[in-house]
Amino acid sequence: xxxxxxxxxxxxxxxxxxxxxxxxxxxxxxxxxxxxxxxxxxxxxxxxxxxxxxxxxxxxxxxxxxxxxxxxxxxxxxxxxxxxxxxxxxxxxxxxxxxxxxxxxxxxxxxxxxxxxxxxxxxxxxxxxxxxxxxxxxxxxxxxxxxxxxxxxxxxxxxxxxxxxxxxxxxxxxxxxxxxxxxxxxxxxxxxxxxxxxxxxxxxxxxxxxxxxxxxxxxxxxxxxxxxxxxxxxxxxxxxxxxxxxxxxxxxxxxxxxxxxxxxxxxxxxxxxxxxxxxxxxxxxxxxxxxxxxxxxxxxxxxxxxxxxxxxxxxxxxxxxxxxxxxxxxxxxxxxxxxxxxxxxxxxxxxxxxxxxxxxxxxxxxxxxxxxxxxxxxxxxxxxxxxxxxxxxxxxxxxxxxxxxxxxxxxxxxxxxxxxxxxxxxxxxxxxxxxxxxxxxxxxxxxxxxxxxxxxxxxxxxxxxxxxxxxxxxxxxxxxxxxxxxxxxxxxxxxxxxxxxxxxxxxxxxxxxxxxxxxxxxxxxxxxxxxxxxxxxxxxxxxxxxxxxxxxxxxxxxxxxxxxxxxxxxxxxxxxxxxxxxxxxxxxxxxxxxxxxxxxxxxxxxxxxxxxxxxxxxxxxxxxxxxxxxxxxxxxxxxxxxxxxxxxxxxxxxxxxxxxxxxxxxxxxxxxxxxxxxxxxxxxxxxxxxxxxxxxxxxxxxxxxxxxxxxxxxxxxxxxxxxxxxxxxxxxxxxxxxxxxxxxxxxxxxxxxxxxxxxxxxxxxxxxxxxxxxxxxxxxxxxxxxxxxxxxxxxxxxxxxxxxxxxxxxxxxxxxxxxxxxxxxxxxxxxxxxxxxxxxxxxxxxxxxxxxxxxxxxxxxxxxxxxxxxxxxxxxxxxxxxxxxxxxxxxxxxxxxxxxxxxxxxxxxxxxxxxxxxxxxxxxxxxxxxxxxxxxxxxxxxxxxxxxxxxxxxxxxxxxxxxxxxxxxxxxxxxxxxxxxxxxxxxxxxxxxxxxxxxxxxxxxxxxxxxxxxxxxxxxxxxx
Length: 1024
Prior knowledge:
This protein is α/β, with parallel strands linked by helices. It is 40% helix and 14% strand. A six-stranded mixed sheet has the order 1-2-3-4-5-6. A five-stranded mixed sheet has the order 7-8-13-10-9, sandwiched between helices. A five-stranded mixed beta barrel has the order 17-18-19-21-20. α14 runs antiparallel to α15.
């Protein structure tokens, strides 16, 4: 009887989750229920499953509305009906085809109109919905004659509650959607006050005098049958035209690739190829491999670099096809982690391209496989805490300063008035509510049937269509995604290779993976953490780990890439791995199984494969449950639910094997920590290959490498850090120059000219035009010549003058400013037309003005965000540079030191104090006066007395702790050091201090739980 139910997937309209809607149907003893969210099918698959579990017949459809006006309700008679609705809405969303107000072409649907929109002609499958409070209108002759085409219409939008809070919540959502005050919300923007579940019998009694209406309603729900097959894969089946020809092509390509990767007498590789081909064929995944291969082939024809990772890199077939560059035999990669006969879903290929090339790859995929068969996964973006407070504050009419206080500050600092108390109440009710649909960052779906058979498509701002459900629903219904990713690291590598060839005439085949796996200089850089700018191994945490491990080879780097992940670290085993790596023979294996299966990693579970091995060989779980475990760790469903299902099985099996309870609990604790937060070995190996490629270029061509890193937007750090790295590598850094700079940063020998891209206040069109015009018509000869050729205003010109872009003229900045104002005041110089007979520029005699040498540094701070002409340390009031420099730290273990240091970045980490309450600590990364990096730890007691005061130079007092070759300073006290007054504002004391307060810093936050301490692990781990 309830043919028009909404959930919160009717964005900023419904207030009920899908789970709650079905549970309410159970509570009201309903046998049939319809879900018709507004213009979306986001929830229908979850709804279908939950209804089946509860013994309710699911009816699905859509409430079609245009600009808040309801056109009609569509109920699918069968899956074809949903496809018709999806196509109707997709045509509107993606192609702008108007939705007909009446009589849509939906042969496999029932269409129900409200009394406000009755068409002139009703087709056989079309009906009119009449609400109980509209029954008195049936005395009208024009309506009475249509009773035979009427059905019960009782929409459901919110849950009933004593204080009517849910109805008010609905109104609040509508006000948020309309961007208006709650008090100004128009009546036709929100639903009627009775749109909630009522007793079915009482509802039917309202219609007792109109049996036709009741019969029509029963007829519709009886005729609707949305039986969906979740088990059959929905991905594109074949790359060619059949399974047989797919397998034939895959086998041919695999053996062609085999001859390139291996020698003909490599029997173990040949056996692995044969084994994998057999499994791939049996699981019907040949097409999946070939589609991935096809995308890679296109990429190679375009000259793009890619990295194939994910569990797909476990496959020798992927290696032979060129999808990955990881030899599974070299690293003893576990194929069953990637594919096994228990697996019903296609495997994971995560393919990375440069951020510059990814859209080209996406365009190829959409063109090759057809826009009707390709779309991105969607994501449901929830109202976050800040947005909940801000949106509610706006709806309740709070001024901007109070909105800022609500959204940015903790509750303790809020003004606790009655309006704020009301906001608190509804803020909590909105937790988990979706706010908008967005595009998954990388997940592409390629379907066999038209993708609108399963979803409406939408066009978010990035101009690639998305389905209305997320990756979990996609997987659930049999649509597996291809992960097409982008990153800046590949762009840096590719650009460096091109820059070296352009500037030095040296050609480097960087994709030759043998090139950089055993380079002495690279290994030295690794062991001392000299890796800033290198993909995945440049963060402070990773550089510290490399130093603790004294990592000096590829295989240790592969392990390091995984033990840095929260899964290993969360279990406490990262710390244990470091100990065992540094103290071979001074530890005990937990059990002989750990020694046998995990000898390479000292008995520590490092990779997802290790977890599966231990679960199966130590815990005795079945191969099928091993696959469940794989999925729990692969990010398919990042939760502990799948692991919890295995818990009983694991402990029972451990008991049968005679394992001590304490050991079994500890092993399970370690396994549990891996859920969703760990790498498979092949994934780590792929990262390690790219990291080594970066490191090779950094070691042998450091200036070109850092220039490319700067041009690709850097990575973990801000631009200033990469400029500093270039300087430390021997580069001379120069400010942007209109004659020597390009849009991007460029290099001439060891001279690096910052690109115009770094002048944020310069318009993008001007940044591009200046070098383009120079290439066409030669260098700019003077400021006057520049202004004849570049149409530019005085404010923009002043920025260029202050940054030093006209220093080639040999004139001081104040001279250039006066000249600029004079030239721009003459209208004839506003044109860009170049005269054939230019008159010589007149010389003007101006008084010589003594400039403070540090004025340029403050200009640079203001325009670029960092200094170029001078070190930031040169701007300090004090000449003191600390009692110890980084190069001496290893000699000061357990000693107090005073250091003067410039803050590069800090990471906020939650911890628990001794009372069990959450507290905060920070890890800082700094450079000393010589430009060398070091790290600090700031615990809560110190932070409360000596907090960070944003970017700048600090005087630090702390104790040096050398932890496996890596020194860290535990801070006792610190104070931010004042800079000299800005000499540009010598007459304005307040203005002269502004730049000091604008120094940059990078702040990151981790949301993980605190890592366990040694005593919390509960097992003896080291030999006495």
